[in-house]
Amino acid sequence: MGGTPVVRLARLVDAGHAEVWVKLEGANPTGSYKDRMALSIIEAAAADGRLRPGQAVVEASVGSTGSALAFVCAATGHPLRVVSSGAAAVEKIRTMRAFGAEVELVPSPYGMTPDLVPAMTRRAAEIAAETGAYLVDQFHNTDMLPGYHRLGAELAAQLPGPAGLDAFCSYVGTAGCFLGATRALRAAYPGLRRVVVEPAESAVLSGGPAGSHQIEGGGIGARPPLLAPADHDEVLAVAEADAFAMARRAAREEGLLCGPSTGANLVAAIRLAARLGPGHRVATVQVDSGLKYLAGPLFAASP
Ligand SMILES: Cc1ncc(COP(=O)(O)O)c(C=O)c1O
């Protein structure tokens, strides 16, 4: 887990713009940076006795966290129950079940809607109260931050030469990745601009109304509880259609297979690169592998 590669975009960025570097988190065991948080959370809870050997674990997850927890729980001997939803890619639900997790689905015919995460979270808390399972509670669990801190520290060590890093951007759900990575990166680059990415259709951090969208994994319709206004310097809203189009272009033009949230990250990073200009650097993350989205609408539309 971790030690993932970093590549520089070669064709999606104009020659007169800043460099864009991408940390390829699809290279983790379940194909997502969520593996880092699952291990970090389970290890921390086991270390101080909040999680006993063999105790069941429960969590609400649209998909990637559930897949990563299912992997880590299988490896560490904890039964897992996941409350997920119809908004999750079918590959993610099957991954959870393949690792032996019990999955319960909350209906969500309209994708990521503002009431979805609260409904899933309530159900997971109910299960924890009824069964005594350890509730991960990812929207409030700071045990994940060391896992993402390592991601940021790796990235700082991997960027070549003394050029530095001017900006980092990423799409937020829990904001765990954004917080852990930017804290590590700020230690290496004190002037770093920290840019949160959100869906234009639910741009609440930009002051807009909550709405439904298809960029799964974030844009929850409210400020993530762990993310304080002082934790970011800017918010960029990316339209769902632009995120999807960029994910498709990244596959064809860069050989970078990714999902919608990574598409949003790339749109934001390329916008920042245009603004910053030559001699500057922007970094972002490939959240997960596009292999998780092959059965859904993202690549089905490709001729
Ligand atoms: C596909 C995808 N992208 C982005 C995110 C956002 O990551 P974070 O929760 O660290 O903010 C998630 C989180 O679930 C996700 O599943």
UniProtKB/TrEMBL annotation:
Keywords: Pyridoxal phosphate. InterPro entries: Cys_Synth/Cystath_Beta-Synth (IPR050214), TrpB-like_PALP (IPR001926), TrpB-like_PALP_sf (IPR036052). Residues 2-285 form the Tryptophan synthase beta chain-like PALP domain. GO terms for biological process: alpha-amino acid metabolic process. Its cofactor is pyridoxal 5'-phosphate. It comes from the Bacteria. It holds the Pfam family PALP. PANTHER family: CYSTATHIONINE BETA-SYNTHASE. This is Cysteine synthase. The lineage of its organism: Bacteria, Bacillati, Actinomycetota, Actinomycetes, Micromonosporales.
